[in-house]
Amino acid sequence: MKKLILPLIVLLLISCDEIKPILLTHNTPKNELFNYHGRIEILSDSSVVLINSAASVEFKVKGDSTTIHLQSVNGKHNYVVIEINGEDNRRYRVEGNSITKISLKLPNKLENKVSVYKATEASNGGVIFYGVDAEELLLLKNEKELKIEFIGNSITCGMGADTAEIPCGTGEWYDQHNAYLAYGPRIARALNANFILNSVSGIGMYRNWNDENIDEPIMPQVYENLYLDLDSSKKYSFVYNPDIVSICLGTNDLSDGDGVKERLPFDENKFVTNYISFIDKIYNHYPTTKIALLNSPMITGEKSEVLLECLKKVKNHFNETHAISIFEFNTITPNGCGSHPDLNDHKKMTEQLIPFFKNL
Q1: Which of 65, 317, 332, 345 would disulfide-bridge 341, Cβ 3.0–4.6 Å?
Q2: Residues of the chain with pLDDT under 50
């Protein structure tokens, strides 16, 4: 019997050693192997705030698992979308009263690329990135040369688009946000381009959805501020320098509001004047960028004609100095929350826009 016991003990020891888990090391956000895109702020503890829609951090890890540490900055929940090896994984809720730890099983043992995108917008508060637990971080090269900036309103934010988990009319107003699957990021992925979304729900060029620029700021007033609000103490750096700037504004300027609050007739002159001044501001930061003006997929009939005529006046103003392009959407009936495009509508918008952006 003694001769049989020893081999069994050796076998058990070998088996235990084989299934011993690999310990993951915590990597803080200041690690240079993290790549950040979009508007971010580095806090005093070296954590990083993802500010605007689809702001992101990406990294490459060795091993088949990782844990991401996130927290919503304002005490309320937020959402992120996590992409693994270029494939959309899913949308995750990030809590505000504690750190949310998202553990992922990864398909490859040698290396995996993981990207974390903020699904909500700047007005929902930032998402703080505290780092990741991983076997090892690897060098991730950014091989995308083309850079696009998308400026817009709730459509560009992906508001009301994702109803897979939370139906319209339930939860918070931003529970259906999915900036990752909005038309801008879809176009960028199709063209293998880096991108940034500078967009705010309800915002316009000279007035907003339900405000005559009395209580709420308009895009020209917030664009240069880091958090896309009126806090001018923190300015955006404008180091991105995009090859193309796409502007999709006008839906809210032409809206009728809620029908309760007083709404003045649309002021074409003020809209065009503000638009021209705003483009001057963009050229001041990006002198060589190409600018594309998009009309609205949510406006039809006479209002659509008015918007298109306004965009033509803006384009004509710059004819002698800059070549500006205009894109006109084919009509799309929005199927998302609050008469916004849903994910399928964003897909249709993307299919219309890709040839246009390829030409640019």
Answers
A1: 345
A2: 1-19
pLDDT of residue 331: 84
**Could you state, in order of their start, the residue ranges of all structural domains in the chain?**
25-138, 147-359
Residues β-bridged to residue 58? 35, 115
- Long-range contacts of the stretch 212-219 (C-beta < 8 A, 24+): 212/262, 212/263, 212/264, 218/274, 219/151, 219/249, 219/278
**pLDDT for residue 14:** 37
Could you please state the CATH topology (level 3) that the domain comprising 147-359 is classified under. Rossmann fold (3.40.50)
Q: What is the third-level CATH fold of 25-138?
A: Jelly Rolls (2.60.120)
Classify the phi-psi angles of 69: left when phi > 0, otherwise alpha if psi is within -120 to 50, otherwise beta: beta
137 neighbors 26 (Cβ within 8 angstroms) = no
Nearest to 177 by CA among 8, 12, 338, 295: 338
Place of tokens 């991108």: 195
Residues with Cβ within 8 Å of 283's Cβ and at least 6 positions away in sequence, in order, are: 289, 291, 322
Question: In the numeric block, which tokens belong to residue 2?
Answer: 């003694």
Alpha helices, DSSP H only, in the chain? Answer: 2-18, 154-157, 183-190, 219-222, 268-285, 301-317, 343-359
Which token pair is 106? 């990864």
- Residue 15: φ, ψ to 5°: -65, -45
pLDDT digits (tens, 9 = 90+) for 218-240: 999 999 999 999 999 999 999 99
Please tell me what DSSP assigns to residue 209.
Answer: T
Distance (Å, rounded) from C-alpha 187 to C-alpha 6?
A: 64
Cα angle 121, 125, 128 (rounded to 5 degrees) comes to 105
Q: What is the pTM of this model?
A: 0.93
